[in-house]
């Protein structure tokens, strides 16, 4: 029998708070982290269709991590490293007492080191001096720079893998970390999701794709509005979330506090379209069903869903169709919310943030509000989606994450201990 996998530590950095307590207090109060972008260096923000984002203001990595690590990586990896540090401390892990060969790292990232990438390519063309390219350019921009620096900072010598599946990256990182533990490849996995791509080129690309909200440029806190009839695109965000996963046996051996059980996971491809989900929601429903099968649970046992819900015209309604299909009449009994309404869409970090939010709902019995749900879209309306804080006794939670490239990921979490 495969070992039970549990979560023993959490770390999080978002536009509404750095650290688990700061984030959670802001979330249940319904604070928005969306603000105007002041400008990009050399490019006026007025040139962009969208001018708002979920930004982490005044983040100084040197307040949290050693300079020799902080200065070697891009902002996204700094965020991931700080979140991992917080999760390790929260879990009470003493790496000197651990078998480092049995501690692995699994990170989800959507874009990688885009800040340095854009800066260096601009300087190269401006100066025409290729010998001036930063010597750490290559190891900094690679997608696995976050997992690499996390492993180095904490001496984790087990499996070290980066997963990049756009917006579902960190749900898959958590799920694959669970598989590694079930298969006996490690005793503990440091798993994280991170992205920081509010950069001139990436932002311009999403604007050109017409994926971003532009209607609320002068009202930034109202722009991210999942499930609402007035939604007009997602709001970009940045952030990181980290979780410490362990086998139950290992967690008990070190007398760790346990947040929740990672009970099930599923990954599928719709093989349909690079950026648009299949309209009937059947593939999303299938992924949720597979994750529940993996957890050996039935749809009737699910109490809460942290929805992917990006606030896009095509996306939110498809997810609701999938929920209605699998949960049938129970869909209106579920508590459902959209964390992106608070912090924006953090791309590769979104799944980790959703998983952490789900765990906190299981732990506290509180579901944070979905902001800006002023006029619910009839195609998205379910009784359990609310603009108010909701409470309940939750035993099973589901976190959804769907990414560009026709990619679906679903995680199922259980309250620990289960009764």
TrEMBL record:
One of its GO terms (molecular function) is 3-oxoacyl-[acyl-carrier-protein] synthase activity. The keyword Transmembrane helix applies. It catalyses: (9Z)-hexadecenoyl-[ACP] + malonyl-[ACP] + H(+) = 3-oxo-(11Z)-octadecenoyl-[ACP] + holo-[ACP] + CO2; a fatty acyl-[ACP] + malonyl-[ACP] + H(+) = a 3-oxoacyl-[ACP] + holo-[ACP] + CO2. Keywords: Acyltransferase, Cell inner membrane, Cell membrane, Fatty acid biosynthesis, Fatty acid metabolism, Lipid biosynthesis, Lipid metabolism, Membrane, Nodulation, Transferase, Transmembrane, Transmembrane helix. Residues 2-415 form the Ketosynthase family 3 (KS3) domain. InterPro entries: 3-oxoacyl-ACP_synth-2, Beta-ketoacyl_synthase, Ketoacyl_synth_AS, Ketoacyl_synth_C, Ketoacyl_synth_N, PKS_Beta-ketoAc_synthase_dom, Thiolase-like. SUPFAM superfamilies: Thiolase-like. It is an enzyme of class 2 (transferase). It is found in: Cell inner membrane. It comes from the Bacteria. SMART domains: PKS_KS. Pathway: Lipid metabolism; fatty acid biosynthesis. The keyword Cell inner membrane applies. Its EC number is 2.3.1.179. Belongs to the thiolase-like superfamily. Beta-ketoacyl-ACP synthases family. Involved in the type II fatty acid elongation cycle. Catalyzes the elongation of a wide range of acyl-ACP by the addition of two carbons from malonyl-ACP to an acyl acceptor. Can efficiently catalyze the conversion of palmitoleoyl-ACP (cis-hexadec-9-enoyl-ACP) to cis-vaccenoyl-ACP (cis-octadec-11-enoyl-ACP), an essential step in the thermal regulation of fatty acid composition. This is 3-oxoacyl-[acyl-carrier-protein] synthase 2.
């Amino acid at each position: 029998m495969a070992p039970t996998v549990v979560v023993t530590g959490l770390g999080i950095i978002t536009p509404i708070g750095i650290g688990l307590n700061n984030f959670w207090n802001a979330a249940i109060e319904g604070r928005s982290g969306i603000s105007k972008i002041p400008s990009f260096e050399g490019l006026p923000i007025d040139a962009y269709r969208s001018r708002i984002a979920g930004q982490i203001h005044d983040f100084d990595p040197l307040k949290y991590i050693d300079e020799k690590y902080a200065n070697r990586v891009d902002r996204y990896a700094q965020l991931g490293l700080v979140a991992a540090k917080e999760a390790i401390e929260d879990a009470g892990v003493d790496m000197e007492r651990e078998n480092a060969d049995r501690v692995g790292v699994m990170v989800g990232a959507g874009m990688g080191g885009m800040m340095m990438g854009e800066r260096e390519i601009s300087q190269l063309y401006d100066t025409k001096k290729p010998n001036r390219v930063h010597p750490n350019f290559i190891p900094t921009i690679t997608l696995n720079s976050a997992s690499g620096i996390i492993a180095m900072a904490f001496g984790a010598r087990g499996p070290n893998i980066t997963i990049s599946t756009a917006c579902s990256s960190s749900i898959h990182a958590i799920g694959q970390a669970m598989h590694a533990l079930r298969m006996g490849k490690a005793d503990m996995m440091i798993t994280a999701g991170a992205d920081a791509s509010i950069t001139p080129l990436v932002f311009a690309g999403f604007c050109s794709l017409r994926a971003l909200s532009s209607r609320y440029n002068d009202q930034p806190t109202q722009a991210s509005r999942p499930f609402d009839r007035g939604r007009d695109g997602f709001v970009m965000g940045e952030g990181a979330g980290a979780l410490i996963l362990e086998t139950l046996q290992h967690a008990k051996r070190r007398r760790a506090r346990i947040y929740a059980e990672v009970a099930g996971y599923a990954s599928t491809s719709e093989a349909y379209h690079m950026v648009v989900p299949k309209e009937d929601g059947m593939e999303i429903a299938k992924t949720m069903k597979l994750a529940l099968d993996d957890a050996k649970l039935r749809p009737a046992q699910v109490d809460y869903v942290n929805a992917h819900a990006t606030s896009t015209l095509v996306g939110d309604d498809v997810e609701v169709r999938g929920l209605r299909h699998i949960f049938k009449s129970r869909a209106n009994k579920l508590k459902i919310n959209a964390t992106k309404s608070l912090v924006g869409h953090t791309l590769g970090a979104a799944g980790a943030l959703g998983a952490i939010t789900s765990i906190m709902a299981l732990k506290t019995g509180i579901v944070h509000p979905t902001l800006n749900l002023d006029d619910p879209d009839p195609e998205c309306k379910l009784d359990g989606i609310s603009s108010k804080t909701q409470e309940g006794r939750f035993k099973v939670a589901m976190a959804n994450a769907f990414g560009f490239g026709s990619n679906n990921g679903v995680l199922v979490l259980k309250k620990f201990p289960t009764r």
